[in-house]
């Protein structure tokens, strides 16, 4: 049975995840290693996976037009950021300061207008 380990890059669809599997290959002519990424749609029965999780998938019968893989187990969970636990610090630092807007480099043409 064919199995792969990859990272969940989308979990927007119901009971479906999109898993990116990286592999390294050597270009024969130049003998250079390059990274290739394949994307597989996999079935997630309980909607357990979130974006960023590392999962193991295995091949199964076709479940839909594009989905022929099933998620077997979650190897590592992605850490979830909790804004409430941070005490609202993210809101204060997210807004740019208006005093520094004049010092932003806008290019040659924009500097002439100032």
Characterization of the model:
It is built from 2 helices and 5 strands. Strands 1-2-3-5-4 form a 5-stranded mixed beta barrel. A hairpin with a 7-residue loop joins strand 4 and strand 5 (67-76). The longest helix has 6 residues, at 89-94. It has 114 residues and is mostly beta strands. Helices cover 11% and strands 42% of the residues. The protein has a domain at 1-79: Nucleic acid-binding proteins (OB fold (Dihydrolipoamide Acetyltransferase, E2P)).
Identify the CATH class of the domain at 1-79. Answer: Mainly Beta
Q: What series of H and E elements makes up the topology?
A: EEEEEHH
Tell me the helix content: 10-25%
- Second-tier CATH architecture of the domain at 1-79: Beta Barrel
The major pleated sheet works out as: 5 strands, mixed, barrel
The whole-angstrom Rg is 22 Å
3D shape? extended
Q: Looking at CATH, which topology of the domain at 1-79 would you report?
A: OB fold (Dihydrolipoamide Acetyltransferase, E2P)
Q: How much is the average pLDDT?
A: 86
Q: Find the count of extended strands (DSSP E, 2+ residues).
A: 5
Strand content: 35-45%
Regarding quaternary structure, how should these chains be classified?
single chain
CA-to-CA gap between the ends? 65 Å
Spatially, the strands of the biggest sheet line up as 1-2-3-5-4
